[in-house]
Amino acid sequence: MTRSELHMGKQKSKFMLMSIVLLGFFAAVFTALYFYSQSLINIEAPKKELGEKIIIQLPSGKSVFTYENLVVKEEGKLFYKGERNTLDLTGGTIVYEEWE
Q1: Which residue ranges does UniProt annotate as crossing the membrane (predicted)?
Q2: Backbone phi and psi for residue 20, each to the nearest 5 degrees, phi listed first
Q3: Which of 53, 67, 89, 94 has a CB 3.0–4.6 Å from the CB of 78, allowing a cystine?
Q4: 3-state secondary structure of 64
Q5: pLDDT tens for each residue of 53-79
């Protein structure tokens, strides 16, 4: 093998090494930019206005702690209408108090 052939072989190995390093660098930059852009995106649910905090005293002596906008009066009856269920609170008295 002549010197020129040896020299050409070394240049190819340097070129391959540099291309792998550059490819890795660009992949790291794109990955970092992707995660950075994902951290900037915030999707928040709209806040619901539930009204004042109230306590409903039931005739049995038990109490129901809820918000004013979740209690509905229909046809003379008092109902709690939540996200997943509806409770009949007829006969209960509403007391406006702060609770935690």
Answers
A1: 15-36
A2: -65, -40
A3: 89
A4: strand
A5: 999 999 888 998 999 889 998 888 999
Indicate whether 34 pLDDT > 90: yes
C-alpha 94/C-alpha 20 separation (Å) is 73
The tokens describing 51, both together, are 């009204």
CA Rg, the chain, in Å? 35
85-94 tens-digit pLDDT: 998 988 888 8
pLDDT, residue 33, reads 95
Q: Which DSSP symbol is given to 62? A: -
Answer yes or no: is pLDDT of 23 > 90.
Answer: yes
Question: Rounded distance, CA 65 to CA 98, Å?
Answer: 10
What tokens appear for 61 in the block?
């002596």
Question: How far separated are the first and last CA of the chain, in Å rounded?
Answer: 87
Torsion sign over Cα 11, 13, 16, 19? negative
